[in-house]
Amino acid sequence: MRGLHMVMVILLLSATASAQRQEGPESTSPHFTLRYETGYTDEEVEWVKTELESAYRQLSEKYGFELQSKVPVYLTGSEVSYSRKVISRERWGAVYSEGTLYFEPMTFIRKNGGLTITVRHALCHVVLQPMVVKGCPPWLVEALAVDFSGELEILMKPSQTSVKFFTDLNEALQEARTSTELEMTYYLLGLSMRYFEERFGARKISEMFKSFDGRSLDNQVMERVFGVTYNDLQYQWSQYVDRRINAS
């Protein structure tokens, strides 16, 4: 399994690429335009739209994130079709690539976490894409996606960890080579966002993401938003993670 850094490359490229024109029946909702291949029932299409709108509503209410336009969504009907659409695969069955959110077939999604988790994780990548372009580090995006999706409750917990710096999380994302390594890295990411949530709250998390402007480094953004030194932030975070993993 390839490291998650390939997924982040896709997300960065999607910022400047136009949405691909897709074939197939079309169904719309207030914030999404779905196209889908053969094999989907009307009930399944409505299910996907309902999950997308629900996830977006919750993201908007909690963090104030807003979509600038309708998001093209494409539901593939087979593994072969999905592999032809995307370069690299997300573990939960959806990838945001070149301005379109692609989903694996429902049979795969049902066996790998379910539609709710898939939608909530993927939508975080969609709404945070403008922040990524402006310098938001990949680990922060993944951390919010894992926490918001609810994955933290079902991921494999590492038996121990020695993370001391936020850059350790980026390195772990880039160096993960097996599904087990990636899953434990996801757990650390979700736990990290849980730390920010418990210490600062959703409002400050929102302010942090929105403060990336393409000029400020991530340490400057965090110090300005949270009102603490970067070193103190990293130390308190590493202690939080240590208590919840190494002490259990």
Radius of gyration: 18 Å
> What is the rounded distance between the termini?
29 Å
Shape: globular
Q: How many beta strands in the DSSP annotation?
A: 5
Strand-and-helix sequence, N→C? HEEHEHEEHHHHHHHH
Q: Which sheet architecture does the biggest sheet show?
A: 5 strands, mixed
CATH architecture of the largest domain: 2-Layer Sandwich
CATH topology of the largest domain: Zincin-like
Q: Structural class of the secondary elements?
A: alpha/beta
Architecture overview:
This protein is of the alpha/beta class and 248 residues long. The chain contains eleven helices and five strands; from the N terminus they run H-E-E-H-E-H-E-E-H-H-H-H-H-H-H-H. A hairpin with a 3-residue loop joins strand 1 and strand 2. The longest helix has 22 residues. The radius of gyration is 18 Å and the shape is globular. The relative contact order is 0.13. The N terminus is likely disordered.
In short:
The chain is α/β, with parallel strands linked by helices and 248 residues long. The chain folds into two domains: 5-130, Zincin-like; 134-245, no CATH class. The protein has eleven helices and five strands; from the N terminus they run H-E-E-H-E-H-E-E-H-H-H-H-H-H-H-H.
Task: Present the secondary structure layout.
Layout: H1 5-14, E1 26-28, E2 32-36, H2 42-63, E3 71-75, H3 79-85, E4 94-97, E5 100-103, H4 106-111, H5 115-133, H6 138-149, H7 166-175, H8 179-200, H9 202-210, H10 218-226, H11 230-245
Parallel strand pairs: 2-3, 3-5
Antiparallel strand pairs: 1-2, 4-5
Helix pairs in contact: 2-5, 5-6, 6-8
